[in-house]
Design goal:
single chain; alpha/beta; 5-stranded parallel sheet; 54% helix
Length: 294
């Protein structure tokens, strides 16, 4: 039998692979889109887990991952996985070992007590926060903080599980003296309120799977009107990505019951701290008020 060779068109490194996935994502089947989202959201797990484990976590058969890899020009999934492994070995020193250690700890735990649940959640959150440091660009953080500070009005939108993130942003930014408007879905007015946004303003949108339709629609309409958008989401394949000036793709992993907000809340706090530093250095603006009480 003739040995099949890898196509010359198959991506040669992780960055090239991700670019190709983004280019083809809209034309992919629903199954391949699910695989694409999982690969881009969980690159470290893809690097260290077997295809059977990855497929099980994604809720499909391993053969789908093999066919996906072949559709991109590889002989099989192992060749595609090699790109993820190479990426992981170039991460911060000790990062790969920490990822493996956390994974092993989760797999080896059998404690189903209340404290055991707490332990598992904390371990997973630690992994998400470590991955956050690797994924978030220092340049993007600086650009976002500058844009928030310079905006006339900061509009905020996030529904369902994303609501706590925008609530935190509104609270801290308001205390910093920024004019904030929360596009609250109450009363069905969020879409109409969003139409008051101007190019001098900025929209911070937060949305995770399964992306609230109203949030996606408002973001797309705002982008058409020239309003700059900072998006916090769970994937570079998020429907917010194409409209955002800055997209923060926050690592998010399925837990036994729910998905944690530890990483996006940490990112939100980092943004507000960066804005606070700029406010403090701006002699023409009021200094940060001292907050007392609860």
């Amino acid at each position: 039998m003739k040995h099949q060779t890898q196509s010359d068109d198959a991506p040669k490194d992780y960055e090239e692979l991700i670019r190709l996935i983004h280019e083809r994502h809209a034309q992919m089947s629903k199954t391949y889109q699910r695989i694409s989202v999982y690969l881009t959201q969980n690159p470290n797990e893809v690097a260290v887990q077997s295809v059977n484990t990855i497929a099980e976590r994604c809720g499909m058969h391993a053969s789908s991952f093999v066919r996906f890899a072949q559709a991109l020009g590889y002989n099989g999934f192992k060749e595609l996985q090699l790109l993820f492994q190479r990426r992981l070995t170039t991460a911060a020193p000790g990062f790969e070992a920490r990822v493996r250690a956390l994974g092993d700890e989760l797999q080896n735990r059998e404690d189903r007590s209340e404290y055991g649940f707490l332990h598992d959640l904390v371990v997973r959150d630690i992994a998400s926060l470590q991955e956050l440091l690797e994924r978030i660009s220092a340049e993007d953080l600086a650009i976002a903080a500058d844009a928030i500070e310079g905006a006339e009005t900061v509009y905020l939108i996030g529904q369902l599980r994303s609501s706590p993130v925008v609530d935190l942003l509104r609270y801290i930014l308001t205390m910093l003296g920024k004019r904030c408007i929360l596009l609250d879905p109450g009363g069905g007015l969020a879409t109409h309120m969003a139409r008051t946004m101007r190019m001098e303003d900025i929209l911070i949108a937060v949305s995770f799977r399964f992306y609230a339709t109203e949030v996606v629609n408002i973001v797309e309409e705002a982008a058409k009107s020239g309003v700059p958008i900072i998006a916090i989401s769970d994937s570079t394949l998020s429907p917010l990505a194409k409209s955002a000036k800055i997209l923060f793709a926050v690592p998010e992993h399925d837990y036994t019951f729910s998905r944690s907000l530890a990483a996006p809340m940490c990112l939100a706090q980092a943004l507000t701290v960066a804005v606070a530093a700029r406010v403090q250095q701006n002699e023409t603006a009021p200094r940060i008020p001292t907050v007392t009480g609860t």
